[in-house]
Specification:
There is one protein chain. The chain has 290 residues and is mainly alpha-helical. It contains 12 helices and no strands. It starts with 5 loop residues before the first helix and ends in a 7-residue tail after the last helix. 28% of the residues are buried. It binds zinc ion (2 copies). The site of one zinc ion (ZN) has 5 residues, from helix 6 and helix 7.
Amino acid sequence: MLSRRTRLGLSAIALVVIATLLGGSQAPIGTLGGTRALGLDWFLLNILVLAMLFVPLERVFARLPEQGIFRPGWLTDLLHFGVSHLLVQVTVLLTLVPAAVFFRWAVHPAIQGAIASQPALLQFVEIVVVADLSEYAVHRLFHAVPLLWRFHAVHHSSEAMDWLASSRIHLVDAVVTRALAFVPLYVLGFSTGPVYAYLVFVSFHAIFVHANVRFRFGILERIVGTPKFHHWHHATAPIDRNFAIHLPIIDRVFGTYWMPEHFPAAYGIDGEPVPRRYLAQLVWPFQRRA
Ligand SMILES: [Zn+2]
Ligand SMILES: [Zn+2]
């Protein structure tokens, strides 16, 4: 209402009026014309919680204050965010099922029993290590194999880093990465509690490392993945550094660690091969090219 951009304020007021007319907070959830299969509530909850958390954070502690919330490409990223949340039931299924179908042979009840009987906190730490090791391997594959890079290049096409840029991930990239990262967790048989705790942790941490924030963490930066660490993964140069999400030590072990004192000067892919619009990004990896 206070903004100079009256169009934005008026559309917000119109949306609030419509929401109130539809029943406001009294409206039953999940009964609107069979939307149960779509993660509409999941999308709305997440966009609200994440925006309330990250927009003020990026305003107060901005690394690039001039960037703004509505920087170029924000709508494309919001569409990525929206579609991946609406399809959450499909993508979760595609993430979990392959492990159970293709790796049931690798399951040993005795090993699973021993792992699941450990304290929850210990299991959580182990999950972070195991998951990040496989995420590292899969992530490097997506950079090294040209066919996979087509899909992963969409994520690297962001030229502005912020919390919303984290959601620019091609659906194929997201599903394949998560499904492969889930395999060792399934085979080792961690308890559901620590696995759920990890899912919450990874969803926030993966967004945080993209955020437009200037936080520095001193000695912790060498141990835990920070915005500066992942921003260098998105730098135009050097490329192919910092593949881990949570544990930079994995990159140090495999010689891909890159952590200068400053943040990168530019993000994206040299030559900008990826189209800017959402639908174009979705079909781009499937298109024949010379
Ligand atoms: Zn990457
Ligand atoms: Zn990223």
